[in-house]
Amino acid sequence: MKSEPSIRRLPPELVAHIFINSLTHPRHPKKNEAPLNISSVCTRWRQIAISTPAIWSSISITFRRGSLPFAYPSILKNWISRSCNHGFSFTLTWEYQKYAVGAIDLDPSIVASIDVLVENCVKWRNISVDAYEDITDLTTRLLAVIPERTKQLRQIAIVAPEFAIASLFTSPLNNLTHLSVSTDCDFTAFQNNVPMESLVSLSIQADILDVTEVISRAPRLQQAKFYLKLYSDEEYPTEPITLPDLHTLDLDVEGGGFDDVEVVDVRLCRFLAYLRLPALKTLFVDLGYIGDMVMETVHWGGIVDLLSRSGATLHNLEIRTNDTASLPQFLEANQSLKHFAITNNLLSEDNQLIDRLIDDPDSITCCHTQLCPNLESLRITCHEYSSVEDAMTEICSFINVSAGEGQIHARPLVLVVPSVTWESLSLPSGSCLEIVQDDDWVARRQHDIYEKIGAHW
Q: Can you give the residue ranges of the F-box domain (predicted)?
């Protein structure tokens, strides 16, 4: 008697678990990938797949001008139906067409797809909408249901030029924990004081007044990424904003076109003056921006005052700025740093900086005041406007200094270098360094320093 194949004797629950963990993109499957593939193998597998809501609870959709290659409306109806009470998540991308001309008319199948999503908005769990062309019809139709009809939303990511952030605060979203928003929309006044009590991770690229309004309504923020558009001279709220749980801040700035750097600096300092971040441990900073056709750099004063005012003990600092005259003074004021990242350009501008980062302060030969006495790792990054050769020069200088000091007079450090330079580097005898390539380092510290900020699933 012929025995039944082993695969057919597995419990359905185990088969379903294997299905879920075998998806190529389990959180963003495409319409022509599994779970459709695994549900087509045999009748038994199809029955198990169809009755496993988690398999059908998330999809990735791409819209483009013209007809769609797949029948999205029917696909969406099937997937949403099979997701049952598991909730439904989607990533929707409008494929940018650089050379397309003329008015953008939405294909009927796109409109029908949006209608299906809107009709089922009460099921939305995590959504990502990326339509950075001015597809007003698409974004308006889709996003108008938030927040009144989407109470189960946990994560939102929106990239849309005309999206008004204030519209998210017309009704509570008590389950929302992660939010990412990028918009060019002018500031729209917030009409009420609806909080986002559960929001812990925020990434926002918007007018500085929008940023102020959002964070004032998110008292439990733990991570934040601010891309500040410093265009406005309007007054900010007079009450300070305290974020007692915020441990990671990524700060980037965009100036007001032809505004002098002094004007932009005042705007940044005015914003930072309202913040109190007592739990801040990790700070990423890029104070450079394109001014009147040249790179400008905002001063460090506002950030120094923020840390001092907050009483924060900073452990990790990554500087992406290409120029700052007061860097040593800033480092001297932050003795608790354990990890520090710097562009190779900054390293080359101060001849003593390498020595002060390497020297052991207990050495009788040390003639400098040591910077960052608790430093454990140093990351040298190659600025986007710099060549790899320039980065190699500074990295080799650092390695040579560490070897020249000798094991007695130099402290051990993990030196993190750009991955493209890693194979060309070697440590001379006596060096106290451990060299790690950039990609490996980020993967190693993904759980703390480089934890993703904003919506991601």
A: 7-61
User: Residue 176: what residue type?
Assistant: L
pLDDT at 26 over 90: no
- Indicate the pLDDT class of residue 388, thresholds 50, 70 and 90: low
Boundaries of domain holding 387? 323-457
Last residue within a domain, chosen from 12, 37, 55: 55
The DSSP call for residue 39 is G
Q: Based on the fold, state whether residues 336 and 399 are members of the same structural domain.
A: yes
Range scoring the smallest mean pLDDT among 1-5, 25-29, 161-165, 187-191: 25-29
Distances in Å between the Cα of 99 and the Cα atoms of 65, 110, 137, 432 are 12, 21, 21, 54
- Cα 150 to Cα 33, 111, 153, 184, distances in angstroms: 28, 20, 6, 24
In a domain, 169, yes or no: no
Q: Is residue 452 domain-shared with residue 336, that is, in the same domain?
A: yes
Whole-angstrom distance, CA of residue 184 vs CA of residue 44: 51
Q: In angstroms, rounded to a whole number, what is the distance separating the alpha carbons of residues 434 and 452?
A: 26
> Is 219 found in the same domain as 108?
no
Instruction: Report in angstroms the alpha-carbon separations of 259 from 266, 301, 380.
Output: 11, 19, 31
Q: What is the pLDDT of residue 408?
A: 44
- Residue spans of alpha helices (H) in 176-293: 208-216, 261-272
Q: Tell me whether residue 298 is in a domain.
A: yes
If asked whether residues 95 and 22 sit together in one domain, one would say no
45 plus 62 within the same structural domain = no
Check residue 293 and give left, alpha or beta (phi > 0: left; psi -120 to 50: alpha).
left
Q: Which residue has the tokens 């209608």?
A: 115
Which amino acid is residue 153, in one-letter code? L
Same domain, 9 and 90: no
Residue 336, Ramachandran bin (φ over 0: left; ψ between -120 and 50: alpha; else beta): alpha
Asked if residue 427 lies in contact with residue 433, where contact means CB atoms within 8 angstroms, the answer is yes
**Closest Cα to residue 286, out of 212, 371, 222, 227?**
227
pLDDT at residue 281 greater than cutoff 60: yes
pTM for this prediction: 0.87
HSE-up (13 A, CA, CB side) for residue 391: 22
Same domain (yes/no): 259, 134: no
Whether 182 maps to a domain, the answer reads no
When mean pLDDT is compared across 79-88, 189-198, 315-324, 432-441, the lowest value belongs to 315-324
Report the candidate in 145, 150, 131, 127 with the shortest Cα–Cα distance to residue 57. 127
Contact call for residues 160 and 131 (beta carbons, < 8 A)? yes
Q: What is the mean pLDDT of residues 234-240?
A: 71
Gap between the Cα atoms of 106 and 108, Å rounded: 6
Residue 178 lies in a domain: no
Q: What is the mean pLDDT of the chain?
A: 79
Domain tally, the chain: 4
